[in-house]
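haha ok so turns out i had the wrong file open the whole time. this is the CORRECT one, sorry everyone. sequence first:
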Amino acid sequence: MEKQLTGTLALAVFAAALGSLQYGYGLGVINAPQKVIQTHYARSLGLEFEPQYDEETNLTTMQPEADSAPAALTMYWSLSVAMFPVGGIISSFMVGFVADFRGRVKGMLVLNVLAVVASLLMGLAKMGSPHIMVIAGRAVMGFYCGLSSGLVPMYIGEIAPVKYRGALGALHQLAIVTGILISQVLGLDFLLGNDDMWHLLLGLSGVIAVLQSLLLPLCPESPRYLYIKLGKKEEACKSLKRFKGEYDTSKDLAEMQAEKEEALKEAKVSLLRLVRSSVYRQQLFVALMLHLSQQFSGINAIFYYSTAIFHKAGVAQPVYATIGVGVVNTVFTLVSVILVDRAGRRTLMLIGLGGMCLCAVGMTVGLVYQSIYSWMSYLSMSAIFLFVVFFEIGPGPIPWFIVAELFSQGPRPAAIALAGFCNWTSNFVIGMFFPYVEAYCGQYVFIIFVVLLFGFTLFTCLRVPETKGKTFEEIAALFQKKRAPRPVVEAELEQLKGATEA
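then structure:
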């Protein structure tokens, strides 16, 4: 009899999600010890820079003020922050190649070499030139995370039973926010975010890489990869039984056979052909818009600058309020894991985006009027926490795994690579340009996100289909109904099949 959830499946999902944990840790770890790291940079460069700590607020900003740090120091710090998403942008294009070259499991296993190298560069930064070693380590870690953020949801999406595909797929986001929270807590001054231990804080992700390297060899390869990509029916059958227990695999094999036949019709799809082909245009448009809605919702602005926002709102210890945001972030991602296969992806996206839009309005009103009415600061803080709650209900976890649901085996690796590139680039743009936009717009900055969120909510309502409980073939059929007349589609598929792949 088929078991939907087994120990092997749980182990495989946990082992894969450790890659997402590293991604979250790398995303958040650089913020807390900023002033300490800048001091070490200054000493290495022979510059005079002694930051003034605000013991009352313990406030840490994203970038040093221009008049308190030399230009060279500002440049090196900006590179330390920016090289992480730059590494992710570059490597996101290679997700399809790595996934298909040696398989999902071996791909994740080999990638840990990058994670260990990155952690050693940062962990040993005190022994060399800290600015060079940290920047290099952040670039390598970003390169690793760009690949990992594509491989993890791809592998989990392919091994998860249809009934639990949404919940297991959302664990990728849960691991990311858990990693962010761990980095925030460990980055407190009395733990590792101090002058003596900051290099260990940055290098600690190597421990996660070692643990994942020990667990991945125990995990079966994706049955879909084995059967559809390699044509190894017996190995795929064994893999299915390891994931689901002893049962009749004929139904799953029949579904994979149908998908394989479709894949043979469409052939392997390169990035260029994916972008140019009208056959996949609607799925691709939906996938990219969902990733844009995740990044341009304003959530990274909240994460990067929440400490400063809480300080403006009059919180005595804003760093701890920011950690509170991280806790809420993690708890409600867990709620999403529970709800996503019950309420559905589309419903949760609509609730999340609509709720965030209203919260952005509340945040703006609170920031504008808090100098007049003191109680408005409570409105701002409540809006921040609710903003994070609505984000993790839908727009946080869903875009990562829904891309794998929207595409069949042929175009899936290229689609995930392109969606990852879109996500990382958007992350970089927000991180680089939000401070300037904030300086120009002041307290009205979140009105921009109100407009964007309203547009994303409208798009989701009109264009995003529900994928809950549907097979990959059934999801593809939803888009085929909206495509060009069938003879046109078949002609283009034949053209794709016969063309030489780039």
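The first helix runs from residue 7 to 28.
again sry for the mixup
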